[in-house]
Amino acid sequence: MKSVLKILMFLGPMAIIYLLLVWNTAPQKIHVYCEEGNDLYKVIQRLEYMDVVRYDSLDDLLDGIGKGESALILADNYPNERLNVPDNFFDLLKEKKNRFYIEFTDKLPGVKTQPKNKTPKYERAVVNSSFFGNQPDSLDILAINGLTYVPTQVSNAHIVAARVAGLDSAIYGVPKENNPLLFQLNNYDGLVSTTGLSNFIKGRYAPQVEWQGIWKWIFQFLLDDGTVIEKLDWNPKIQTTYARNEQLPSDYQKKSVEKGVEWFRNAKMLVPEKYNGILQNTHNEEIKTEFINWSDTISNGDGSNGVFECVFSRIDEKGNQPIGVVLRGDCTGEVAGAFAASGKLLGREENYEIANNLLEFYLKESSALKGEYGNPAHGAYGLVPWGISSYAWYKANYGDDNARLFLGAIITAAITGNTEQDDILMRMLLALHRTTGKNGFRGDRIDLPQLQENGWQHYYEGKVMNLSPHMEAYLWACFLWAYDKTGDPIFLERTKQAIKTTMEGYPNKWKWMNGLAQEKARILLPLAWLVRVENTDENRKMLYTALDGLLELQDDSGAIREELGSIEKGVFPPSKSNADYGLHEASLIAKNGDPVSDLLYTTNFALVGLHEAWYTLKDPRIKKSVDQLSEFLCRIQVKSPEHPELHGGWMRAFDFERFEHWGSNADAGWGAWAIESGWTQGWITTILSLRELDTSIWDLTKNSEINNHYDALKKEMLPTGKKQ
Hints:
Blueprint: H1 2-11, H2 13-24, E1 28-33, H3 39-44, E2 50-55, H4 58-64, E3 70-73, H5 89-95, E4 99-103, E5 124-127, E6 141-142, E7 159-162, E8 179-184, E9 190-193, H6 208-222, E10 239-240, H7 252-266, H8 275-279, E11 291-292, E12 308-311, E13 323-327, H9 329-346, H10 349-365, H11 391-394, H12 399-416, H13 422-434, H14 448-460, H15 469-486, H16 493-504, H17 516-522, H18 524-533, H19 537-551, E14 596-598, H20 603-617, H21 620-636, E15 638-639, E16 653-655, E17 675-676, H22 677-693, H23 697-700, H24 710-717
Parallel strand pairs: 1-2, 1-3, 3-4, 4-9
Antiparallel strand pairs: 5-6, 5-7, 7-8, 8-9, 10-15, 11-13, 12-13, 12-17, 14-16
Transmembrane segments: 7-26
Keywords: Membrane, Transmembrane, Transmembrane helix
């Protein structure tokens, strides 16, 4: 020691300061029990300020760890197997004054654990103390996908599992019923996780900044020596295609279309042969199989057996999401349109074949139109069932879903030249018209038993009022299109009145579904097409009113921000309590101002409406808006080579401030990370293709000859003597 002092005195004061700084910033040793592939280990072994020593056995770790050094004991077999530790394990760490973090273990000193793990359906992780400073803060919500934990009870947990409502924070507080996920072990210098926190990359834990904060403070606890813990960084499994401010390539939109249409194959959305034989779903029974796990062994279909509905928003501990296997009419038409439009853009005639196969399957080969819907004596004649995977889907008839099937089908026919479904499509238009009331509204839904009991005349003579663009607007667009092709005012008069009535109530009198923003997005298409058929000052004024209302919600990034209306007008508002979370369809946001876009209900249809409005009005302000929105969508398209079921897709929720896929996952059917094959993927791919082709839906389909079937069908379905 004396010799060291003599050397330091000889070197002088500046050298002494330098050597002290080097000594003080030397890498801190941390001992880790885990496999080499553990997420946390792969991140920290790259850090210069940590000397990471990994062990394959707990005995080796106990032998190798020095007095006062820190340890990470990680559960590589989470969630299938708890970490088994020796009976004296914690006492040995205590004797050496080791600080430690341990997770998903089978036993804890002084703490009673339940023998059976819990995998909750609704619980989320919630910060429950000030342990992490303010990043994340108390009450902040975290996603631990595939959450499984060891049930126990301790006081003062830093993170708990609880059923809570909210987007970023638990807006109603933490309920009494909660379970600890991270806490400090009494009488030990240790942090205990009852779940697998180190699985944060594979499990796609979110949001990323909050998880960076969690690990920063855990290491701050472990290395309690003044070491400044820098932000841990990693590449998440799900990323955006382009960063927020990244320079885009000149062909970014075409590349986005290529990825968008390829997603259908990557995600195994095109139903393989013998689908019903495997899953045994039929329209006259209750549904037996709602989803299947994605696998690269699933063969790709060619559209001849239809298209699956979605990738569900259920994420397991490996980051995988299952395929929703319901067969729906709306998705079929929308996906057909996407394949046709992308086929024209990319020069791929095989896409035309898939598009035509999809329509042929649902409208002719499947059971959809072979029952009541194909019976001229039934009130449902000409309509198309919501789905054919069970009776619950088959009996339901949404006019809006029929309308979107129709729009996808006319896009397909215009591009491929296949008019074999024109008679069915014309029959559908008349069936929708004759179940629409005198005021021009059809109502949300009419089911088979009601159509059987009441007949179509009941609805045609009815006076329903339904100020709901979500449910009515795309029907109006179809009727305006039908008027342009047939010249028959029966498609125009009721529609004009309904649109005018709805705009007189804009927007405070509107019923809204998951948000008011989606209603503002939906109304654009019929207003744009109303100007196409009657270019009057009144109609242009209504269109500009709607455009102004939607563009108020557009962020500089191009994103459309979600918006809530008055709660009493909301059908599926945000969760009204913690206990309400997950019980019904719901908004992605908790309050107005939350920076989240909804690509299932709002942004996708805003793209459709703005695109058609631009080609109608040729207003540069609209062009700028739709350009920004399209660029935003191309940026946030999912990039994930490790998850083919997601790569090239557009998830429902996106936080445009975080620039990360994030939202409240309260929706019971189609949560924040769902990818809907028709509503979302279909329409975004279609409109991006049409933008590249420099055409609109209206102009693309202007030469349709669907009216060739009109006179005969009108005579059959609207017999003389019935008021029209």
